[in-house]
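Minutes, project check-in
Item: structure for the 270-residue chain
Input as provided by the requester:
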Amino acid sequence: MTQKVAVLGTGKIGEALLSGMIRAGWTPSDLLVTARRQERAEELRSRYGVTPVTNPEAAKTADTLILTVKPQDMGTLLDELAPHVPADRLVISGAAGIPTAYFEERLAPDTPVVRVMTNTPALVDEAMSVISAGTHATADHLAHTEEIFGAVGKTLRVPESQQDACTALSGSGPAYFFYLVEAMTDAGILLGLPRDKAHELIVQSAIGAATMLRDSGEHPVKLRENVTSPAGTTINAIRELENHGVRAALIAALEAARDRSRALASGNNS
């Protein structure tokens, strides 16, 4: 890889991205990092061989800037970067809810911006990253973004108008599965199983089910029906889920996440 890439505000997701890029073939000397704390920056240098710099230095030196700070910190970061970012830099934002127009208004005219919503399975190279182009981003910019985020999982291009829905579905999605596993583990304990055995049973069931969903090509309804025999245990469990409005609750939860993403975009951080 010949382009220099800088990850700004390198937390867990930023570090996962760095690690994945290096495994995918990027040279550590072409990777720059910034961090709020100097000891964090030195930790990244020691661990990966990357170069810690300041935010203005990253803007002046790197060809691609990946902004991984929290949404509420993005305005401050852009104030610091704006005087130093030439219009030929590619700016990639990983901040939930913030549209590309927000960056385009604060950076040099015609600066290409790409918006990405990834998720925490980037830590194990199983991320789902959703990519949208800003006004000045080209097909080459999108392909370069896919190359970067493809190092830690799958990528999908969507119109930016769909980003809030994708944030609700996949950006926050892992938390829903963790919540479900937590609840099922508690149920297993209630049914008389030790916690470690209940956890192992549920996690492997989840891995198997996810693999079937990915590899079988079957609709989830069909896969569920294959497990649901007449008057059996599964249909009784499904009936209780329906009686308790689980499907409706999931829809309402995702709508709430989408609405929060929209609120972040409007500047409502409270």
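Outcome recorded: The chain has a mean pLDDT of 94.
No further action items on this chain.
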